[in-house]
Design goal:
Blueprint: H1 3-14, H2 33-40, H3 44-50, E1 52-55, E2 62-63, E3 66-67, H4 75-84, E4 89-91, H5 100-116, E5 125-128, H6 146-151, H7 155-171, E6 176-177, H8 201-216, E7 230-234, H9 253-269, E8 274-277, E9 281-282, E10 285-286, H10 291-301, E11 307-309, H11 314-320, H12 328-338, E12 343-344, H13 350-360, H14 366-382, H15 403-416, E13 418-422, E14 435-438, H16 446-449, H17 471-479, E15 483-485, H18 497-504, E16 509-515, H19 533-544, E17 549-554, E18 570-573, H20 581-589, E19 645-652, E20 656-657, E21 662-670, E22 676-686, E23 697-706, E24 711-718, E25 725-726, E26 732-733, E27 737-743, E28 746-752
Parallel strand pairs: 1-4, 1-12, 4-5, 5-6, 7-8, 8-11, 14-15, 14-16, 16-17, 17-18, 20-28
Antiparallel strand pairs: 2-3, 9-10, 13-18, 19-21, 21-24, 22-23, 22-27, 25-26, 27-28
This protein binds beta-D-glucopyranose.
The site of beta-D-glucopyranose (BGC) has 9 residues, from loops.
Length: 755
């Protein structure tokens, strides 16, 4: 289908392009003669249009946020957007998921108008949040949310989940995925913890590489099973002081660089095509107006060449929320000056009108527009949209939602689920065990999946997929008549708890499925870290029956359960395990699968002690006063197995490290009777440093599988790079001195000599 290409590009290429040399193109944008020719022929309005992203609602029948059902495009509105305003990008889902057929119809029609009815015929790029699978396409494969993916410590599964997601997004005719979230989980109160890869830099970096290459391939090409990834939200979004979404963060430059930047740097190196900017403010400056972050750091330092899109309404918010822009026009100027390429406006045309005005009056140069338009058009070209803007033939996507995708989802869920407690080896259960399954998460599709599931908040049960097994369904399928269900309570109130307590008398074991209803962003803000009181009360009542109690958690973030933890004989953290999470949980409960997930964050015990595992020494020092400040419920990296792994022979190849590095090894033996997977974790502690060192940092890990009685020597290569931290001058440095290496509690030391 070279015809579309002809229409949009070839025409302008043939008019020999003279006068633009590499010198006149921004140093950060690759030079492409086709694109330069096209840009040269564009009006200011057409350029501004390319920089505009609108919500699907704006071109659909009905009111914004209240569309006519079933969804239909509105031909007049579509014409206004694409023909009159030259809009270059559309996003979102009009309120809920659609069938694949409907998506293909929508995209096909938008592309038809964009390429046939506009002067230049430039295709649009459609963006969507497919953050744990193609969640806005009905029938797609839904995976565990990112936090669960991180708990697997298995990059292969994460890459495979991203590949399948890309395939299913493309099967829906869409080419741009607003994923992955690369914000580090440094405030467990935040409503979007479940969207992150957890609190540790190394783990999150490794998962970042897996996700980006899974979505895009080694480099982004026009491969019809890949999508453009969007690393988000640049930068420092995830540590608001209050824990509330989009409220101010106060982050030192050292912290910003050492903890929040590495995932994004990794994503840039992995070829991430686009970035979304953080909606919040850092140290008093909204990031959308912060040139130091959006241009100096992102472009000059990281060398990012792709497209920077704002987050939802964020230019407008510089005026009406952040109050740094006295008028909307100032807001547009500030964001353009900071360096954004595309405005997720997304519900009106004010951005277009104001940006055109700013250019016409000379406040913003047309060359500035060219820099952004160039990046956007290059992205469209890379994705093959000029050659073929239409969704590829439907029968090219026969694997959509198929069993092999579901299997990957199940394996990911199985490796993510984390066994936090197992007193007296209560788990696994025998198939004959009589079980009462209870609690709000037991028979809930929404609580398996979390937010961004068929709708934004993921709470509307209208979209439940009846073919998906809930936790109760999956247990019942395996345990048959031995398994019964009474809900007992919702997430916030007791319901038929009397019936549950009566039923409990007849069983051997109670499985209580507790946690949070899905939520994200501002609707997910909480005032209190504790698990809801009704659920805590209910657990106490269940425990009073004297029956062994197994707690299953599905939650957006670690809710405090200190008071009920002693009442529970076993505890499993499921995160939001996705469509196959019920089956995965049942397989673990009945011992068909040996759990191997590890916590990707520190689970707090007290609301006033929200510390990271890699906190500073002063945060644990005042034990003399009875205030052992680091006393979490469970720490990062923790997770039990049904077998026992014994560690021995921690060995270091040299007690001095030079630039050549050194080798650390340890023997791990499975001394139990079941095959099992273990994450061997190597931590380093810098004994003394010019910037107060953390007590320890994860520097390497390997996930291994051992047969019963099998032992293996695990070897890690360490180099001076792994000793580095961000110093007072904001450069990464490794200082000479003593370092402790620890693996599973055993410790040895070496001296680093910088040659
Ligand atoms: C979220 C982004 C998301 C965007 C588009 C925003 O509210 O912060 O993560 O990609 O909406 O749906």
């Amino acid at each position: 289908m070279v015809m579309q290409f002809t229409h949009a590009l070839r025409h302008f290429v043939s008019a020999t392009f003279i006068g633009v040399s590499m010198m006149s193109v921004s140093a950060q944008s690759p030079y492409d003669p086709d694109i330069e020719a096209l840009i040269k022929n564009m009006t200011i309005e057409e350029k501004v249009g390319q920089m505009t992203q609108l919500n699907l609602d704006v071109i659909s029948k009905g009111e914004i946020y209240n569309l006519v059902e079933p969804h239909q495009l509105d031909a007049e509105k579509l014409k206004k957007a694409l023909v009159d305003y030259h809009v270059g990008s559309i996003l979102n889902c009009g309120g809920h998921a659609y069938t694949r057929e409907h998506w293909r119809e929508i995209i096909g029609e938008i592309q038809r108008v964009a390429t046939k009815e506009t002067r230049l015929g430039i295709p649009i790029i459609y963006g969507i949040d497919a953050i744990h699978g193609a969640n806005y396409t009905l029938g797609s494969t839904l995976f565990p949310q990112q936090i669960g993916q991180a708990a697997t410590f298995n990059e292969m599964l994460v890459a495979r989940a991203a590949e399948i997601t890309a395939y299913e997004v493309r099967a829906s005719g869409i080419t741009w995925n607003f994923s992955p979230v690369l914000d580090l989980m440094r405030n467990p109160q935040w409503s979007r913890c479940f969207e992150t890869f957890g609190e540790d830099v190394l783990l999150a970096k490794n998962m970042t590489h897996a996700a980006i290459t899974g979505y895009q391939g080694a480099t982004l090409t026009n491969d019809p099973v890949k999508v453009a990834a969007c690393m988000k939200h640049f930068l420092g979004y995830s540590m608001p002081r209050t824990g509330m979404d989009r409220t101010p963060a106060y982050i030192s430059d050292i912290l910003l660089r050492e903890y929040f930047l590495p995932t994004f740097q990794e994503a840039v190196q992995s070829g991430a095509a686009t970035v979304m900017i953080n909606s919040g403010e850092i140290n008093g400056i909204p990031v959308h107006a912060n040139k130091k972050i959006v241009t100096d750091l992102l472009r000059t330092e990281l060398g990012f060449e792709g497209v920077a899109v704002t987050d939802w309404e964020d230019i407008m918010k510089l005026n009406n929320f952040h109050k740094v822009a006295p008028t909307m026009k100032d807001a547009v100027r500030m964001a353009i000056d900071a360096g954004i390429d595309m405005s997720m406006v997304p519900n009106n045309y004010e951005f277009c009108d104001l940006l055109v005005e700013l250019v016409k009056e000379g406040t913003i140069t047309e060359e500035r527009l060219d820099v952004s338009v160039r990046r956007i058009l290059i992205l469209k070209k890379k994705l093959g949209l000029f050659e073929n803007p239409m969704p590829a033939a439907d029968n090219n996507y026969a694997a959509f939602g198929n069993a092999s995708g579901k299997l990957v989802s199940q394996l990911t869920a199985e490796e993510s689920i984390t066994l936090l407690k197992n007193a007296n080896q209560l788990l696994p259960l025998d198939a004959k065990t009589k079980i009462l399954v209870t609690g709000p998460g037991a028979d809930s599709y929404t609580m398996l999946n979390g937010a961004w599931t068929r709708t934004w908040q993921g709470t509307d049960t209208k979209w439940d997929d009846p073919s998906v097994a809930s936790i109760y369904d999956a247990l019942k399928n395996m345990g048959g008549e031995n398994v019964q269900y009474v809900q007992g309570c919702t997430t916030s109130a007791l319901s038929d708890y009397q019936a549950a307590l009566t039923a409990a008398q007849q069983v051997d074991v109670i499985i209580a499925c507790m946690g949070e209803l899905p939520s994200t962003e501002i609707p997910g803000n909480i005032q209190d870290m504790h698990l809801d009181k009704a659920q805590l009360d209910y657990i106490s009542m269940l425990s009073a029956t004297g029956k062994p109690l197994i707690l299953l958690l599905t939650e957006s973030r670690p809710r405090i359960i200190r008071d009920i933890e002693p009442n529970c004989n076993a505890i499993l953290q499921l995160y939001y395990p996705g469509d196959m999470g019920g089956v995965a949980a049942a397989n673990i409960i009945y011992g068909k699968v040996n759990p191997s997930g590890k916590l990707p964050y520190t689970y707090p015990k007290y609301a006033n002690a929200l510390l990271w595992y890699d906190h500073k020494h002063t945060e644990t020092m005042d034990v003399d006063f009875g205030n052992d400040a680091f006393d979490p419920q469970w720490t990062f990296g923790y997770g039990l197995s049904y077998t026992i792994f014994e560690y021995s022979n921690l060995y270091i190849s040299n007690d001095t490290m030079t630039s050549a590095g050194l080798t650390v090894s340890v023997t791990v033996k499975n001394t139990g009777s079941r095959v099992g997977k273990e994450v061997v974790q190597l931590y380093l502690s810098d004994q003394f440093a010019s910037i107060t060192p953390s007590v320890k940092r994860l520097k390497a890990y390997q996930k291994i599988e051992l047969q019963p009685q099998e032992s293996r020597v695990i070897t890690f290569q360490l180099t001076p790079e792994q000793l580095q931290f961000v110093g007072a001058d904001l450069q990464w440095i490794a200082e000479p001195g003593w370092f402790d290496v620890s693996i599973n509690g055993s410790k040895t030391s070496f001296y680093y000599k910088s040659n």
